[in-house]
Specification:
This protein is an alpha+beta fold and 170 residues long. 25% of the residues lie in helices and 31% in strands. It has 4 helices and 7 strands, in the order βαβααβββββα. A 7-stranded mixed sheet has the order 1-2-7-6-5-4-3, covered by helices on one side.
Length: 170
């Protein structure tokens, strides 16, 4: 399908993502990925901040309000928490979480799993899989739209995590 993959390898697509348990036969599956020059523990706090802002194109997703560019030291996410905030409104719910490993939410009928995969040289693969049970005729449009927004989000999270010094001075 057009727009279903960006920045991921075949082996990353073959991984089992937590969202797969919630929607085992989706009409739409899309994968996105980026390598972050930071350890998972440095990236995790930034990822969990999607609860307060979308980190994609703020002028679209957040009514022009800029996503925070500093860590807010939020409490750890838990199942049932709001998944994200866009346009000053809480949207969706967290349906699964494992600290430092994955965050999965449901929003507008789609499930999204962010997976942090540690790599050598203090790098992390930040992977995202989106699944949705929608009209198959609409799936390509949703896939392309998500690609644009998710790409920006992942690149923003990457940049923020790479700019933030780690406690041990990486």
């Amino acid at each position: 399908m057009i727009g279903d993959r960006w920045g991921v390898t075949d082996s990353e697509i073959a991984l089992r993502y937590p969202c797969d348990a919630f929607l085992p036969a989706p009409a739409l599956q899309a994968w996105r990925g980026v390598t972050v020059q930071a350890k998972p523990e440095a990236l995790w706090p930034w990822l969990t901040q999607i609860r307060v802002a979308p980190y994609s194109y703020d002028w679209i997703d957040n009514l022009g309000r800029r996503s925070p560019r500093r860590l807010l030291h939020l409490p750890e996410p838990t199942v049932g928490d709001a998944y994200t905030t866009a346009g000053r409104r809480e949207m969706g719910r967290i349906v699964a979480v494992e600290r430092g490993r994955h965050l999965t939410g449901k929003i507008l009928g789609a499930y999204m799993s962010y997976l942090l995969v540690p790599r050598e040289s203090e790098t992390t693969r930040l992977l995202l899989k989106v699944v949705a049970d929608i009209n198959p005729l609409l799936a390509p449009a949703l896939s392309v739209g998500d690609l644009v927004m998710a790409r920006r989000q992942l690149l923003n999270l990457k940049a923020l995590a790479e700019e933030t010094p780690s406690p041990e001075g990486r």
